[in-house]
Amino acid sequence: MPEVKTAVIYYSATGSVYAMAQAAAKAAEAAGAEVRLRKVRELAPEEAIASNEGWAAHARQTQDVPEAALDDLEWADLLVFGAPTRFGMPAAQLKQFLDTTGPLWAAGKLVNKTATSFTSAATHHGGQETTITALNNTFYHWGCVIVPPGYADPIQFQAGNPYGSSHVSNNGQVPPGQVELDAVSFQARRAVELTRALKAGLASA
């Protein structure tokens, strides 16, 4: 079976997206992928982070997680992105990282990779689906094959988001539960399986 190199790249302020990213990375590894888990660079000033206890605690907790680099995108066959929603769009920290990918895009180095994404919002109807579709807009430009979870597993009828896994944090007070973690794990496994099939097909074409 073709090796599937998977980059799980995320931004998380208080830990919800980080928990989902960890679940995705573990599921991808269990499916036989080689995985890099990477956070994007924080853009907020230190005083803003320090003013929020949960934000500051999470920054300390994840200080040893490596930061994402363009090399991680070029290396990977499968790109898994996670970000909280901000006004229905991906958080600026992840968007800023995506905006640095012009050189890879111009060189065609992101074409035919697979991509999938997940998110967390503070409230119900807080922009989960628009955040995921906004991320997809970038994948279209890169020439990626987008892998949604759809309703391809029974967990999706509990999780309820065919665009990508999502979570409602109740303003950061509720961490992802087992349904959300199982959903993002399924999404990662599905993406690995389809990436493997795509690589095999392209290799034999």
TrEMBL record:
Any one GO MF annotation of this record: NAD(P)H dehydrogenase (quinone) activity
**GO CC annotation, single:** membrane
Give the matching InterPro entries: Flavodoxin/NO_synth, Flavoprotein-like_sf, Flavoprotein_WrbA-like, FMN_Rdtase-like_dom
Where's the Flavodoxin-like domain? 6-191
Matching Pfam families: FMN_red (PF03358)
**NCBIfam families assigned to the protein according to its UniProt record, in alphabetical order:** flav_wrbA, PRK03767.1
What protein family is recorded? Answer: Belongs to the WrbA family.
Q: Per its UniProt record, what PANTHER family does this chain match?
A: FLAVODOXIN-RELATED PROTEIN WRBA-RELATED, FLAVOPROTEIN-LIKE PROTEIN YCP4-RELATED
Specify the protein name.
Answer: TrpR-binding protein WrbA
Q: Gene encoding this polypeptide?
A: wrbA
